[in-house]
Write a structure and sequence with these properties.
Helix Hairpins; alpha+beta; 32% helix; cytochrome-c oxidase activity
Length: 398
């Protein structure tokens, strides 16, 4: 058997492995993904204009100026060529300029926050078409999709009508993930307490797969979902099927759903709490928790000084496993701080015994009593439980 045939046989396993590849990124069904595909292909071709000649010339020079080729030109004193310098510097510079222009245009035209102005290359978005809003929550380890307009929700099942713009509002419940549907658009990160957005459109019916492209723990490998682009009649039937489900997505059901689980089957919810996504985003799904937006509004007006510790502690990385624990804090928060006038009328004398002289042990934990002071000019006092200061009693709960 010849050496050439042995080389071909050796390449057969590689060919068999590549035959199973799905080049979905290069065969998208959505206009945004198609534009991203074109950007990738053009950028690759521009870079190959340098890479291929350099690799070819490297092999050519090694062969031409080999030691056994005594007829090759030998110029040990050669040091400069204006023509060669012009080629070496001008060609890469032109390619960099082209890549820079493509990157600048693609960054703005394909900005995920930018509303779509076209369905496809030759079809603008009709003036009377409203985008389909889909609220996406990355859970451990599953995807929750909320359709506020249709009043339904699904787990690991995403559907959208063909040729209608889709506006995704994306967040996460705990750790960072990445929302990615290769046939539809590029990867967008999902982060807790933050909202990202993605505008996309599907131009033809498709049944494909979406997944998380950012490692997020033990169940990451099974964190995928089904994506279908359907015609209007099929999408309406899909919505009606979801509305026949027995479950409803209330806040209590969500708190159970967000607990870590792997390889979760498709679930549907016939009704939703319309305030749920906003509560997830602001880390206040659990009853009695202050929303992050309310806290920011308080901070914008000057804050609550040390009393804000009671507010921030329960919100820190609001994972289900921290709730009700020492690290998670109790479900309480300070709703207001009294004025000096209110404080002067609310103070009462303490019935507690004076502490020993020098008993100034530091306060440990949020809301614990302050150490008593034994000094002639200071009388131990206590605040009523309704006062909103970090004094002898825990701040009022709400």
């Amino acid at each position: 058997m010849s050496l050439r045939r042995l080389h071909l046989i050796a390449l057969l396993p590689l060919a068999a492995a590549l035959s199973g590849c799905n080049f979905v990124v290069l065969a998208p069904t959505g206009d945004v993904a198609a534009q991203q595909r074109d950007l990738l292909v053009v950028s690759t071709l521009l870079m190959l204009l340098i890479i291929i000649p350099v690799m070819a010339l490297t092999a050519f020079f090694a062969w031409k100026y080999r030691a056994s080729n005594t007829t090759a030109r030998y110029e040990p004193e050669w040091s400069h060529s204006t023509q060669m310098e012009l080629v070496i510097w001008s060609a890469p510079l032109l390619i960099i300029i082209c890549l820079g222009a493509l990157t600048w245009m693609g960054t703005h035209l394909l900005d995920p926050w930018r509303p779509l102005d076209r369905i496809s290359a030759d079809q603008p978005v009709p003036a009377d078409v409203k985008p389909l809003d889909v609220q996406v929550v990355a859970l451990d380890w599953k995807w929750l999709f909320i359709y506020p307009e249709q009043g339904i929700a699904t787990v690991n099942d995403l559907a959208a009508p063909v040729d209608r713009p889709i506006r995704f509002h994306i967040t996460a419940s705990s750790v960072m993930n990445a929302f990615y549907v290769p046939t539809l658009a590029g990867m967008i990160y999902a982060m807790p307490a933050m909202r990202t957005e993605l505008n996309a459109v599907a131009n033809s019916p498709v049944d494909s797969r979406g997944f998380s492209s950012n490692y997020s723990g033990a169940g990451f490998s099974g964190m995928s979902f089904r994506f279908r682009a359907l015609d209007d009649a099929a999408f309406a039937a899909w919505v009606n099927e979801a509305r026949t489900a027995e479950s409803q997505l209330t806040r209590a059901n969500y708190l159970e759903l967000e607990k870590p689980s792997q390889n979760v089957p498709v679930q549907r919810f016939a009704a939703i709490d319309p305030t749920l996504f906003d509560a997830i985003l602001n880390l206040c799904v659990e009853p009695g928790k202050m929303c992050m937006s309310d806290m920011m509004a308080i901070d914008a007006k000057g804050g609550q000084d040390i009393a804000s510790v009671t507010n921030t502690l329960p919100l820190t990385y609001d994972k289900h496993s921290r709730r009700g624990t020492v690290l998670g804090g109790q479900a309480n928060y300070v709703v207001g701080i009294c004025t000096p006038e209110d404080l002067s009328t609310a103070l009462t004398l303490s019935a507690a015994k004076p502490a020993r002289s020098g008993d100034l042990a530091p306060v440990q934990g949020a809301g614990l009593p302050l150490p008593a002071l034994n000094a002639p000019s200071l009388t131990p006092i206590r605040l009523p439980s309704s006062a909103a200061l970090p004094g002898p009693r825990r701040p009022s709960n709400s």
